[in-house]
Amino acid sequence: MTPAGELLAAEIRRDGPVSFRRFMEVALYHPEHGYYTHDPFGAAGDFFTAEQLQPVFGILIAAHIRQLRREMGEPVDFTVVELGAGRREMADAFSEWPYLPIEIASGALPPHFTGVVFSNEFFDALPVEAAIYRGGAFREQRVALAADRFVWHTADPVRPEAEEYFRCYFPPPEEGRWYEANLEALAWLDRIARSLDSGFALTIDYGYTRREWMRFAAGTLMSYRRHTALDSVLEEPGSRDITAHVNFTALQECGAKRGLATARFETLAALLLAAGEPDQFAAALGAGAGAEELRRRMQLKTLLFGMGETFRALVQRAGRE
Ligand SMILES: C[S@@+](CC[C@H](N)C(=O)[O-])C[C@H]1O[C@@H](n2cnc3c(N)ncnc32)[C@H](O)[C@@H]1O
């Protein structure tokens, strides 16, 4: 068993089945044995993100942020905060503004600021709670041990906050369906709404809307190792990534209640196309020739055609009421 697995197993033997949120929290973020304590990015790691397609991704996102700043009337005081900044791949692209990268063990949202809260694949990495609708109730899917293996365990009805989340952000419940609640994402929206006096939250991730949830009868939990999606999210905790697709309806509706109104919700491809349009992608493709030009063209192609249709960009505006 992995070291994170040993910790979880001990907790289960002592206290009984743990919530999936707890399982994901230890598997990904335990300070010593969590998956994110080693560097999982890149060719030798388990996955690539759009952020690693530098400089093209950085140049286009910075161009979009310049457009947002223009819409705000070019405030002098303008900070870019990044949630889940990982390897700080965006640092160069954001160097024209004060840039505040936030990671699990470093950085914090300023109490009050004007600017942009940017994130790429942050919300999908937050621990979620899981449930199944059975016998007229949302029953929590906890994690138990059976012969030293982690297994799902259908437990009591979920706590009231999760029940409210399910009733609010999903269509009427269906017997036997799987549900996921990302209450941590809503807590982050609260924090953003409190701290961002004026500006935008720009969130890039993969996910679904209320209507699209119908496609995910078995839920959206996924696990990755060495660029391969794996079947079970319960195996080898700490040595593989675990993600849950983002519920964009929850981000939009919960954001609206907190003064973060949706300004745009589109595919990543649409956002990048609009950002590169004014100069026909000249800035992103650069003046280089040969190998560098080819490399940048490949990055643009991956961003627009590979990731661009799967990933979504949500732009929410603060400070307008
Ligand atoms: C999938 S990675 C994405 C990293 C980077 N944005 C990219 O696109 O390459 C998710 C990141 O979110 C960070 N993260 C997760 N929970 C966090 C929290 N509560 N506060 C700050 N960062 C967090 C993780 O440590 C990880 O680096």
What does this structure look like?
The chain has helices spanning 3-15, 20-29, 56-71, 160-169, 183-195, 248-257, 268-276, 282-285, 290-307, and strands spanning 18-19, 79-83, 99-102, 113-120, 129-134, 137-146, 149-157, 178-181, 196-205, 207-208, 222-225, 228-230, 241-243, 246-247, 261-267, 312-318. By secondary structure, the chain is α/β, with parallel strands linked by helices. The protein has a 6-stranded mixed β-sheet with strand order 3-2-4-9-16-15, with helices on both faces. Strands 1, 5, 6, 7 and 8 form a 5-stranded antiparallel β-sheet that branches. Strand 11 (222-225) and strand 12 form a beta hairpin. Helix 3 (56-71) crosses helix 7 and helix 5 runs parallel beside helix 6. The longest helix is centred in the last third of the chain and has 18 residues, at 290-307. The model has no long low-confidence stretch (mean pLDDT 94). Bound molecules: S-adenosylmethionine (SAM). S-adenosylmethionine binds next to loops.
Order of helices and strands: HEHHEEEEEEHEHEEEEEEHEHHHE
- Helical/strand content category: alpha/beta
Shape: globular
Strand tally, please? 16
CATH architecture term of the largest domain: 3-Layer(aba) Sandwich
Give, in spatial order, the strands making up the sheet with the most strands: 3-2-4-9-16-15
| N→C terminal distance | 53 Å
What percentage of residues falls in helices of 4 or more residues?
25-40%
- Gyration radius from CA atoms, angstroms: 20 Å
The CATH top-level class label of the largest domain: Alpha Beta
Continuous helix count: 9
